[in-house]
């Protein structure tokens, strides 16, 4: 089963060919860690706090991440002069 990684790989190799491995590997690393940790953490929450914790914890995490996304400032790309 595919997770749609082909588009990400193509995008990173087209935009920055010299760093395609890093730009593709780092997000996949964190996605794999999340895939391993999330079911275990969900089980711990459900056992400790009941079934509703399975819905409350991700909601709190999502709303906690919103200020980080709003406050984040993307970097500016500096255009290099083209040498002929």
Plain-language structure description:
The mean pLDDT is 78. The protein has three helices and no strands. It is elongated. 71% of the residues lie in helices and 0% in strands. It has 84 residues and is mostly helical.
Features:
84 residues, elongated, mainly alpha, 3 helices
Concise account of the structure shown:
The protein has 84 residues and is an all-alpha fold.
Per-chain topology:
Elements: H1 5-15, H2 20-49, H3 53-71
* Average pLDDT reading: 78
Beta-strand content bin: under 5%
| Percent range of helical residues | over 70%
Count of DSSP E strands? 0
Question: pLDDT below 50 for ≥5 consecutive residues: which ranges?
Answer: none
């Amino acid at each position: 089963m595919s997770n749609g990684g082909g588009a990400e790989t193509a995008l990173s190799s087209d935009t920055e060919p010299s760093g395609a491995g890093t730009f593709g590997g780092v997000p996949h690393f964190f996605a794999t860690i999340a895939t391993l940790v999330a079911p275990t953490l969900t089980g711990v929450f459900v056992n400790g706090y009941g079934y509703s914790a399975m819905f409350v914890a991700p909601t709190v995490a999502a709303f906690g991440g919103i200020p980080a996304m709003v406050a984040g400032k993307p970097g500016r790309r500096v255009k290099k002069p083209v040498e002929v």
